[in-house]
Amino acid sequence: MIRVMLVDDQAVVRAGFRFLLEQADDIEVVAEAANGPTAVELARRHRPDVVCMDVRMPGGDGLAATREIVAGEAAPAVLVVTTFDLDEYVFGALEAGASGFILKDCEPEELIDAVRRLADGHGLIDQAVTHRVITEFARRKAPPAPASDAGGRLTAREAEIVRHLARGLSNAEIAKELVVETSTVKSHLGRAMAKVGTRDRLQTVVWAYQNGLAQR
Questions:
Q1: Which is more confident, 167 or 5?
Q2: Which residues belong to CATH 1.10.10.10 in the chain?
Q3: For 131-176, how does the pLDDT look when each residue is reduced to its tens digit (9 = 90+)?
Q4: DSSP conformation class of 152
């Protein structure tokens, strides 16, 4: 079972998400919180696999909570559920270590799929905001370190795959472009993530932009 915690200051939103998620046989909602500090406490107590996190909440926003939650041992993945596709809070959450973003008006199946993807170690940004969020995030960052320094830990092939990942390509698309097997891409990407210390694809893209391996 995928253990999920819901964080939103509106009880009706939490109730709606709980109802939708628990329609899936492999998802269980183990805790709910109405603000950031409570979310941090409950995450430590219940150890969910995925946290569905609102960002604008009275009594403690989701940014600080995300930062604290992902900093812990065996940290869950944080899925930011937002109303705004280019909200300043989205960029803050990306820097804080969120693993995915989805809009509150998504279809039920999209929410369930997002939770499953994050539980499986895959980052996610809602398709409606993918390019805009990553591009704007990269534009706002300070000038990166030279790629040769940042990418020195990676082999040439690993760095090449990370660059393609930052372009938004899937494993299958990268494999086709490099004329290799998809399993080979997955293996190289896994080693690259282990070397640079990222948990998922989304945070690996962030790392690539921050360290000059991705084109702005």
A1: 5
A2: 144-210
A3: 566 666 666 655 555 444 555 689 999 999 999 988 878 888 899 9
A4: G
Q: Which residues of 67-82 are buried (b: 16+ CB within 10 A; e: fewer)?
A: bbbbeeeebbbbbbbb
Are 99 and 125 in contact by the 8 Å Cβ rule? The answer is no
Percentage with pLDDT > 70 across the chain: 82
Pinpoint the residues of the chain covered by CATH 3.40.50.2300: 2-137
The token pair at 17 is 């998400």
Architecture of domain 2-137: 3-Layer(aba) Sandwich (3.40)
This prediction's pTM: 0.76
User: Would you state the CATH architecture of domain 144-210?
Assistant: Orthogonal Bundle (1.10)
Contact assessment for residue 199 and residue 77, using Cβ atoms and an 8 Å cutoff: yes
Residue that is written with structure tokens 């979310």 in the block: 39
Structure tokens at 18: 């709980």
For residue 76, give the DSSP letter.
P
